[in-house]
Each structure stands twice: as C-alpha cells, then as structure tokens.
Amino acid sequence: KHILRGGKEDMILACVFNPPVTGNEVHREDGSYAPESEAV
Fold this sequence. Notes:
Blueprint: no helix or strand
C-alpha cells in the first residue's frame, strides 16, 4: 500500500520495472517476484 500526497497541482508519476513485467508474474510468499529464470 502506498500513500502519495502532493500539493494542489496535478501529480505525474512513472513506474518502471527492469526487466519489464509481462503480466504472468506471481508473487513469492514475501511479496517479491522471482526472476523469470526461476519462475514456476
């Protein structure tokens, strides 16, 4: 969960994943993602 607070102006955000997510990722028990080579 993230809470972002800004001023009265619009906030522009960018989120970048390297390597890019593919949509098939599965969270590990600790909430992280396994590298593609370890994915089940």
